[in-house]
Here is the input.
Amino acid sequence: MAGNNGIWTRNAPILLSILRIVTAFLFLCHGADKLFNLPEGPFTLISSAKLLTLAPGLAGILEFGGGLLLLFGLFSRPIAFILSGEMAFAYFMVHFPHNHVFPYLNGGDSAVLFCFVFLYLSAAGPGPWSVDRARGRA
Here is the structure.
């Protein structure tokens, strides 16, 4: 049995950083797709008129910019909280109206998962591998 000195307890802070980094990278990819049509298509920035819309504009900016900041662990707690709210908003505006209460059936499972991982990160902090920790602000 693992106690306070068990391998899981000792490595929990590092795993927290890994969770933040992997989640931020995946989220950043969603933003890159919305803003730059990457990684699938040729590099094309969306038009400035589309940047003023909720999606792909504001959503893409939050996902790419917030994902990038979270990837490095800079301003992690407030960024994670904002991104959690964005994902809750996305779920209820885009997925919930599809007449299925279960996120798996309405395509919102990743939005729900991102929402709660970001909410957890806003409470738990970025972990030891972060700019926030290096600056003494974790």
